[in-house]
Write a structure and sequence with these properties.
Blueprint lengths: L22 H8 L3 H8 L7 H13 L6 H8 L4 E6 L6 H15 L3 E6 L4 H13 L4 E5 L5 H8 L5 E4 L8 E6 L1 H15 L4 E5 L5 H16 L9 E3 L4 H12 L7 E4 L2 H13 L9 E6 L12 E4 L2 H16 L10 E4 L2 E3 L20
Parallel strand pairs: 1-2, 1-3, 3-4, 4-5, 5-11, 6-7, 6-8, 8-9, 9-10
Antiparallel strand pairs: 10-12
Helix pairs in contact: 1-2, 1-3, 5-12, 6-7, 8-9, 10-11
Length: 365
C-alpha cells in the first residue's frame, strides 16, 4: 500500500482584515495597547516576553511590515548598521557581507554596505552615505586604519568597530585576528612534509593585515628551524592578477622553491593558474597554501590547502561589538577586544617536495 505523505502544517491566516495595516490594527488583534506594540517592534527589553511573542505572532499572521521611519522617530535610532569593506570583487568580502547581514537582521537591524575600493574619494562617499542615513554604528572591515574615515565618524560619536588595528578611544571596538596560529600550522605542515625552501607572496605592504601575515610567516619559519630568505618574499596585491604576476616572478627565480604560502586565497588561485600554464603540477612540482578559505578554495584543481578565517565569526563579533555600544544606556562602554581564530584546512595542494620518491596523501579536515 502506497504511503501518503503527511500534510504540511500551514499557519492559519486571519481574514476580514483592513486593506491597510497599521499599528492600531495590530494592537486590537493582539489585545494590547498601541504603546505596547510600539515597544515590542522597537524591541524594548521591558516588554513582557509572553506579550511580545503574542504581538509578533499577530504581525506574522497578518503579514504586517512595521514602518521603519516611524520606528526610527520613536526610538531615536535608525536601526541600521553600516559596513565598509575594501572591495567586493574578492569573494571574501561578499561572504563577510552575507554573514554580517544575517546576524544583523537576526537582531532587528538593517545594514548599509559601502566599498572603498582603496580610493580616498570613494571613501569620502562612503562616509557621507553612512552619515546621511544616520547609521547606529559602523563596522570598518578594510583591514587597516582609515584616518579620514575615523575622524569624521568619531566626531559625531558614531560607534565604530575595526579589524586588526584601531585607536584607543571611547566608542571604538577591535577585532583581533590571530594570524600567527593558522600560518604557523601551515609552515609546520610544510616542514613536516620535508619542505625547507618556502616562498611567501604577501599582500599590499600598506595593509596592516598583510604586514601581520608576513611577520607571522617569518616567525613561523624560525620556529620550525628554517631561516627566512628575503629573495623568496614577493609582494602581491591580494588579487588574482597579483597572484599571476608574483607566480611568474617566483618561477623565474634561479632556485625555485618547493612550496609557497600566499597572503590570501585569490593570490593562491592565481599561482595555481600560472603553474598550470607553465606545464607544472601542484603539488608534485610546487606545494601551495592560501589564506581565508573562501568557498572557491574547495573547488580549485587541486582543492586548495588554506588557512581558515571565518567570515561568520568576524561578522558575529562585529555586530556584537556594535550592539554593545549602541544598546547601552550608560554612555560608551569600555573598549572590548574580540579574538578571531585561524585554523589550517589541509586539502590536496600540498605534498612532499619535488624529487622525493614518497608523496604522502594529505588528510582532509
Amino acid at each position: 500500500m502506497k504511503e501518503i505523505p503527511p500534510t504540511p502544517r500551514v499557519r492559519k491566516q486571519r481574514t476580514n482584515l483592513p486593506a491597510r495595516m497599521d499599528i492600531r490594527t495590530i494592537a486590537r488583534l493582539a489585545n494590547v495597547s498601541i504603546a505596547t506594540v510600539s515597544r515590542t517592534i522597537n524591541r524594548v527589553a521591558t516588554v513582557n516576553p509572553k506579550i511580545s511573542k503574542r504581538v509578533w505572532k499577530v504581525i506574522e499572521e497578518v503579514n504586517y511590515f512595521p514602518n521603519t521611519q516611524a520606528r526610527a522617530l520613536v526610538s531615536g535610532r535608525s536601526w541600521i548598521l553600516g559596513l565598509i569593506v575594501s572591495e567586493i570583487t574578492n569573494p571574501f568580502f561578499p561572504e563577510l557581507i552575507q554573514g554580517f547581514e544575517d546576524v544583523a537582521v537576526e537582531h532587528g537591524y538593517e545594514i548599509l554596505v559601502s566599498s572603498t575600493n582603496y580610493d580616498s574619494k570613494r571613501m569620502s562617499q562612503c562616509i557621507r552615505r553612512m552619515l546621511e542615513r544616520n547609521v547606529d554604528g559602523v563596522a570598518i572591515m578594510t583591514f587597516g586604519i582609515e584616518e579620514p574615515l575615523l575622524e569624521q565618524l568619531a566626531l559625531r560619536n558614531v560607534p565604530l568597530v575595526f579589524i586588526d588595528v584601531g585607536p584607543e578611544r571611547p566608542g571604538v571596538s577591535l577585532l583581533k585576528v590571530d594570524y600567527h596560529h593558522g600560518i604557523r600550522q601551515g609552515v609546520q605542515h610544510l616542514a613536516a612534509l620535508g619542505h625547507k625552501s618556502i616562498a611567501f607572496i604577501s599582500g599590499p605592504a600598506r595593509l596592516h593585515s598583510a604586514q601581520s601575515r608576513l611577520k607571522a610567516f617569518q616567525t613561523s619559519l624560525e620556529e620550525s628551524g628554517i631561516s627566512p630568505d628575503p629573495s623568496l618574499i614577493f609582494e602581491g596585491d591580494h588579487t588574482l592578477e597579483g597572484g599571476l604576476t608574483a607566480a611568474k616572478q617566483l618561477l623565474a627565480a634561479k632556485d625555485i622553491p618547493t612550496a609557497v604560502m600566499c597572503s590570501n586565497d585569490m593570490t593562491a588561485i592565481g599561482v595555481l593558474h600560472t603553474i598550470y600554464r607553465a606545464g607544472l603540477r601542484v603539488p608534485d612540482d610546487l606545494s601551495v597554501i592560501g589564506f581565508d578559505n573562501i568557498h572557491f578554495a574547495e573547488v580549485t584543481i587541486p582543492p586548495l590547502t588554506t588557512v581558515q578565517m571565518s567570515r561568520l565569526d568576524i561578522a558575529s563579533a562585529a555586530v556584537s561589538a556594535l550592539r554593545a555600544q549602541v544598546e547601552t544606556s550608560e554612555g560608551a562602554p569600555p573598549r572590548q577586544d574580540y579574538e578571531i581564530t585561524t585554523e589550517l584546512v589541509v586539502r590536496e595542494s600540498t605534498g612532499s617536495p619535488r624529487g622525493t620518491t614518497k608523496q604522502p596523501k594529505n588528510k582532509k579536515k
